[in-house]
Amino acid sequence: MAIFPFILLKSEKLRVNKVIINHEKIHLRQQLELLILPFYILYLLHYLINLIRFKQHDTAYRNIVFEKEAYNNDGNLNYLKRSWYGWLKAL
Question: I want to staple 60 with a disulfide (CB 3.0 to 4.6 A). Which of 18, 51, 78, 79 is the partner?
Answer without folding.
Answer: 51
